[in-house]
Amino acid sequence: MPGTLYIVATPIGNLEDMTLRAIRVLKEADVIAAEDTRHTRHLLDHFQIGTPLTSYHDHNKEEKAPVLVARMKEGANVALVCDAGTPTLSDPGYYLINQTVSAGIPVVAIPGPSAVTASLSVAGLPTDAFCFEGFLPSRAAARRKKLAALAAEPRTIVLFEAPHRLVRTIEDIADAFGRDRRIAVCREMTKVHEEVVRGRLDEVLAGLSGKTTRGEVTVVIEGAGKDRVSAAPEEPLEERLRRLIVADGMSVKEAAGRLARETGRSRREIYALAVALTQARRQAP
Fold this sequence. Notes:
By secondary structure, the protein is of the alpha/beta class. It is 45% helix and 17% strand. It has twelve helices and ten strands. The protein has helices spanning 20-28, 37-46, 61-73, 93-102, 115-123, 140-150, 166-177, 201-208, 225-231, 237-247, 252-263, 267-283, and strands at 5-8, 31-34, 53-55, 78-81, 107-110, 130-135, 156-161, 182-187, 195-200, 217-221. Helix 2 links the parallel strand 2 and strand 3 (53-55).
């Protein structure tokens, strides 16, 4: 009989969130596959778990997954853990699970802590439907393009973000979604310095301005909703430029910069279009 792959959730901060079932499974497993063995060793030592550790991460998954699957075919039980929370959420666990399922080996969830559900539970935003987008692209243009595609998403949106990019990302969210959208920034969940900042995007931005953010950050954003979607139909780029320059009195540079942030398109491309529209307007009889 083959063994089993156990997907074991571990604390995202507070070690008291470790479940009794997770402790038992980790003790009884033949091997624990960990994202960072040094990090997991501290957890195992705390709970006096002596099960052997092996590394499994994004850089060795293609060579390590077949080894683990072979052991399970021989009857070994493998427990998969990540550095914190539930494996497979923004980590390479999916690759091993896919290989295990293809081999006909049972996969069992050992549920527990998750930054996604923890943040949703305290955000004060609708939770009947939500989508998880993981980490947004680190490059500004790609991030803005992704946010532009999410602007009409009616469900609550959950994101992870690095602390040094948090303010820039929220600025991009405000440009793409509108500054009155509600948001919750959840930092260091379950840890000593846990903090949840709630409010409209412009309010949260004002509160974060000039501050240094540290630790793990989860961002929860209010969905567009039917009224927001219908109130903001898609408008051709040329019309948006014309409105910003003519009606709102923006300079060509300001209008191009704003639309580049909102759409994720090249600032140079939009600037050239804005110049052409301005010249055509001046030459019109």
